[in-house]
Amino acid sequence: MGENIEEPIYTCTDRMSGFQPGDSGTFFPVFVADLSPSAPTSSYASSNCFGQMDFAFEITSETSFDVTLTLGDKKSKACHEYLMFANTETWHMEVFYFPGTHKLSFNMPSAIE
User: Mean pLDDT, the chain, as a whole number?
Assistant: First the structure.
């Protein structure tokens, strides 16, 4: 107990050997991006639906921030992506059906003094 164990971060392409889209367990989330003030941008090219996903993080006040997504071309007309945005304070689920730029604004509760 108390040991730091290095766990792999799985993506859509390396969840398990022999993995195929449509296999059981495809509803489990995979790591896509880690955004912070020190690393405000990230890209993800292994999406099942979009050719490219670019993320940008921007602090807009002491208690709010924006995440801007730029989604590339769709791989098929019927596909869509479910994304979960989370930090230690909150979480949010969003479904994306269309390519292009999408902006999400998050407000955090002010600090308790």
Answer: 81
Distance CA 70, CA 98 (A): 10
What pLDDT score was predicted for residue 113? 44
Q: How many CB atoms lie within 10 A of CB 96?
A: 19
Contact by Cβ (8 Å): 81, 96:
yes
Burial of 53 (0-12, 13-18, 19+ CB in 10 A): buried
3-state secondary structure 45-69: CCCCCECCEEEEEEEEECCEEEEEE
Q: What's the pTM?
A: 0.70
**Ramachandran region of residue 81, left (φ > 0), alpha (ψ -120 to 50) or beta?**
beta
pLDDT at 98: 94
Quote the pLDDT of residue 68: 97
Instruction: From residue 106, give the alpha-carbon distance in Å to each of 1, 28, 34, 75, 93.
Output: 36, 24, 16, 29, 12
Question: Is the pLDDT at 72 greater than 50, yes or no?
Answer: yes
Q: Which amino acid would we find at residue 99?
A: P
